[in-house]
Write a structure and sequence with these properties.
20-stranded mixed β-sheet, Rossmann fold, 957 residues, 5-stranded parallel β-sheet, alpha/beta
């Protein structure tokens, strides 16, 4: 891609601009200044040379130059019309301008004459043209002058108060803009760039008179430089000076004078002074401050890796004149944050459609794959995973090759990664601190896709500062944190994962037993089955397919440095004993998770002195230690024995537990009083412990407890002193069939955010529940004895989700309309509910409303004020007579469910673009819609064998 502010026009045009002028009038003054201004802006301009001006008629060479130019600037001066050369030139220009088969445009520039003078050959123009009046070509010349003068152009005396410098600047800016709009600023092989460029330019807000720095961050090879270059090429003409500084990281790190040379480049570029000399970085800063303050500049600093680079090249906003813009690309968000860059944009990888187009351009020279190569192309693109660099390299490498070569190349990629991609990606890894490298490799080999909380737990168990470590990886674009619902997940691009795994493999490429991390099932089973384990291994994660559990547990004893062990095995039908040998886990082990552990206990020989996490879900464990051994596990913080055969647990041996999961331990009868001594406990799960009938009296001494899950237990009541749990945030009591009431002081649990009482025998809620100012989620569905809510329910100012489905609620308190943050309101199967509050429209944040199987007769008109309502579910509301006439005001409504009922839709519904309506076919066909009606597959019918349908309404806007 060209580095100038405006790219040369693609196609047949050789020049951007052709300058037509009278040399004696303007060559050494106005035209000279105009020519150099165009050249500085990167506009390729033709200006005739004296040496080709021989004879009285323009040469063939000059004619070709006119034909090879896109735009023409005709500088009319007092003596322009005196030159037959200029007039012949003008005739040719106007012929090209009027040729509809080509794209040429002429612009007049009235230097020291007026348009009227030129149009009617008056004043000085008349005097200049006088010597031609008897020539046979005079008529043709007059017509050309008149035609040119009628075109839109620029007049010096009416522009910028006659200041030539400002006049020239305006001409250059407008011509540049025209060139940009035609050329689109994009290389032929760039895909998806226009939208990305427009978004970034919009963020720059170039018209605002301030200094703005904007960062573009993302992984290596993701298109940051291409995006910055495209923006630079498209907008630099709007600035008084511009500089694109490439490879800041590489240049500043390869030599002591690197930063100094970059300072020289910037000052030279923006000032058009090629003789810049800087003796040191400090002097360079001073010079930049002096030179930049007087010019509105655009600077791109590409691939910045350290704060000192920004301090030297764009130290403060005060260095620059208002209106200046500085764009910074980096892999490391931390650099931007340290420099107080608040406007930061992620570079988006290519979508599937964009990837296919880009790959096809490089591989086939077309927009789509050629015949019979579509499926192979899809496989290539699955490997490329949206990374532009990889797509380009693969497309170029496979161009012109036949299918056998393609297939062989794809097979090679499975074991040998693309070196060009890996080299660029690994730059982000090499600059990491040693502990952050270890965290990165753990994520790449094992923890990709884990929830953030689980990854932090595992990494902290192994002695790492996980929260800050993951943040560093995120800032360096090596991982992303993806939020889904209430959970966050650790994500990593496929190529970065591959790069990390390649780092682990390459030290011993043919000896996987010596790798620091094992994650491939077949390799691990081969190593363990052949007793090849070594002391180099730190982490193991795999699914057992065939290995005998006895062989498996014996092998781990040899891995003296093993700190992380995660195993998933098929459920073993028998309980295995440990009396045939003396197996052991290594004492270095800090994280142990074994799903379906087949033994009844842990071996005596296992010391577990360093164990921080012990997770044995769905195990055969009856007691923790073989022979009833008692061992103090004072480092243990996380214990999960859910779905095990455990009957009792010595909690006084685990004093530092933070999470305890005994969920669905069906043989567990009670929690010992020792649990109240666990002062660090934050999460306790005993859900599904069907024999558990009461809680220890001193449970409320757990001052750090944040999550308590008692669902599906036989708990009859909660301790009255539950209000002492000052940090409790989540309380789950679902399916507690014997629970009929809550403590009256439940409102004293000030931090409570989620309260779930589904399928309990709760008859009423204590009035104090309205004191829970932080409560966000209240689940009361299937509380069949619940008939009403507290009248002050509207005091729950933070409430976002309220589920009252399948209750005997007869009416909703008017105060419910004060729940300004309520997003979900579920009233499914509230058969006693006949109406909604008239002020329901005050629930400004409501997105989801389910009224199915209620006795609602009408919906309040205020419902149409629910601006963000996206789902309205009215299935089997047999008493409903009509919908509000203004339903079309619900501009965000995307789904309307009216299955099982017959009701007219208001005409205003035609205003809703892309609305899905679900109902009976005969009902949908009665509406005036042209959309296709599609049957719903696997839909649970509400009435006998009725089939329901979906209709998507497209409305032309």
């Amino acid at each position: 891609m060209a580095s100038s502010s405006t790219l040369p026009i693609h196609g047949s045009s050789k020049y951007d601009i052709f300058l037509s002028f009278r040399g004696k009038d303007t060559r050494k003054n106005f035209v000279d200044h105009l020519y150099h201004a165009l050249q500085r802006q990167g506009i390729y301009t033709y200006k005739e040379d004296k040496k080709i001006m021989k004879g009285k008629r323009i040469s063939d060479e000059l004619i070709r130059s006119i034909e090879d130019s896109k735009f023409y600037l005709i500088v009319f001066s007092r003596n322009y019309a005196s030159s037959s050369w200029c007039l012949d030139e003008l005739v040719k220009i106007m012929e090209c301008h009027n040729d509809k088969t080509t794209e040429h445009t002429a612009y007049p520039v009235f230097y020291d004459v007026t348009p009227t003078d030129v149009r009617h050959q008056r004043g000085d123009v008349r005097k200049a043209f006088a010597k031609h009046k008897n020539k046979e070509t005079a008529g043709k010349w007059r017509e050309a002058l008149k035609e040119a003068a009628d075109l839109a152009g620029w007049e010096l005396k009416n522009t910028a108060d006659g200041h030539e410098a400002k006049f020239i600047q305006e001409i250059v800016e407008q011509v540049s803009l025209e060139l940009c709009s035609i050329n689109c600023n994009f290389d032929e092989k760039l895909v998806g760039m226009e939208m990305r460029v427009n978004d970034l330019v919009s963020s720059l807000e170039i018209g605002i008179d301030d200094v703005r720095m904007i960062g573009i961050k993302g992984m290596g090879g993701g298109g940051k430089t291409t995006l910055a270059r495209s923006v630079f090429d498209g907008i630099s003409f709007q600035f008084e000076g511009a500089s694109f500084v490439e490879n800041v990281r590489e240049t500043s790190s390869t030599s002591l004078s690197g930063l100094k040379s970059l300072q020289c480049q910037i000052v030279s570029d923006v000032s058009d002074d090629k003789d810049i000399s800087i003796r040191g970085v400090h002097e360079g800063k001073s010079m930049m401050k002096r030179r930049m303050r007087g010019r509105k500049v655009l600077i791109v600093l590409d691939d910045v890796s350290h704060i000192n680079q920004l301090e030297a090249l764009a130290g403060e906003c005060s260095w620059f004149k208002p209106g200046s813009r500085i764009i910074i690309t980096t892999r490391d968000e931390k650099v931007l944050l340290a420099h107080k860059v608040t406007l930061i944009r992620d570079v988006n990888l290519l979508s599937n459609k964009e990837a296919i187009c880009l790959f096809s351009r490089y591989a086939f020279g077309s927009e789509i794959p050629i015949k019979d190569y579509g499926e192979l192309s899809e496989k290539v693109l699955r490997y490329a995973a949206g990374l532009p660099l990889t797509i380009k390299v693969l497309g170029s490498n496979l161009c012109g090759e036949d299918k056998p070569i393609w297939k062989d190349a794809l097979e090679r990629l499975k074991s040998i990664p693309l070196s060009e991609t890996m080299k660029i990606l690994e730059l982000s890894y090499t600059v990491l601190e040693d502990d952050h490298k270890e965290i990165f490799l753990d994520v790449a080999c094992i923890m990709k896709g884990w929830s953030k909380d689980k990854a932090i737990q595992a990494l902290e168990s192994c002695g790492f500062h996980a929260i800050s470590g993951l943040r560093v990886l995120q800032q360096k674009s090596l991982i992303t944190i993806d939020a889904r619902g209430d959970q966050e997940y650790v994500r990593m691009h496929d190529h970065i994962e591959e790069m990390g795994r390649n780092i682990v493999r390459r030290s011993h490429p043919n000896m996987p037993e010596k790798h620091s991390r094992w994650w491939k099932n077949d390799e691990i089973e081969h190593i363990l089955a052949n007793d090849l384990s070594t002391e180099e291994t730190r982490c193991v994660h795999f699914h057992i397919q065939k290995l005998d559990p006895y062989i498996l547990i014996k092998c781990f004893g040899k891995m003296k440095a093993l700190r992380f062990l995660s195993i998933v095995m098929k459920d073993c039908s028998r309980n295995l004993e440990l009396n045939t040998f003396i197996p052991s886990f290594p004492d270095a082990l800090q994280y142990l998770r074994w799903t379906n552990y087949p033994f009844r206990c842990f071996p005596k020989t296992c010391q577990a002195n360093n164990l921080v996490t012990l997770e044995m879900p769905e195990s055969k464990i009856v007691q923790l230690w073989e022979g009833g051994e008692r061992k103090l596990l004072d480092k243990l913080r996380f214990l999960d024995l859910s779905y095990s055969k455990l009957k009792t647990l010595d909690l006084d041996l685990t004093p530092n537990l933070e999470t305890l999961n005994l969920g669905n331990c069906c043989d567990l009868v009670e929690l010992t009083d020792a649990i109240s001594m666990m002062e660090h406990l934050k999460s306790l799960k005993v859900n599904g412990c069907l024999l558990l009938e009461k809680l220890p009296d001193d449970l409320c001494r757990l001052g750090c407890l944040e999550k308590l899950n008692l669902s599906s237990t036989n708990i009859k009541h909660l301790p009255d002193n539950i209000f002492m749990l000052k940090n409790l945030k989540h309380l789950k009591l679902d399916e507690c069939k014997l629970l009929e009431k809550l403590p009256e002081d439940i409102g004293e649990v000030k931090c409570l955010k989620k309260l779930s009482l589904s399928s309990t025998k709760i008859k009423r809620l204590p009035d104090s529940i309205c004191m829970l100012k932080h409560l966000r989620k209240l689940k009361l569905d299937d509380c069949e004895s619940l008939e009403k809510l507290p009248e002050d329910i509207g005091e729950l100012k933070c409430l976002e989700c309220l589920d009252l489905s399948c209750t005997k609620i007869k009416h909703l308190p008017d105060s419910i309309c004060s729940l300004k943050h309520l997003r979900d309101l579920k009233l499914y199967y509230c058969e006693s509910l006949e109406k909604l509050p008239e002020d329901i429209g005050k629930l400004k944040c409501l997105e989801f409303l389910d009224l199915s199987f209620t006795e609602i007769t009408h919906l309040p008109d205020s419902l149409c004020k629910l601006k963000y309502l996206s789902d309205l579910i009215l299935n089997c509301c047999f008493s409903l007579e009509k919908l509000p006439e203004d339903l079309g005001e619900l501009e965000y409504l995307r789904e309307l469910h009216i299955k099982g009922i017959c009701i007219d839709l208001p005409q205003s519904i035609h205003l809703l673009n892309g609305l899905c309506i679900y109902g009976s076919r005969w009902l949908l066909e009665s509406f005036d819609f042209s959309s296709e009606i599609q049957p719903l597959e696997d839909e649970e019918n509400f009435k006998g064998q009725d089939q329901y349908y979906k209709m998507l309404c497209y409305v032309e806007v």
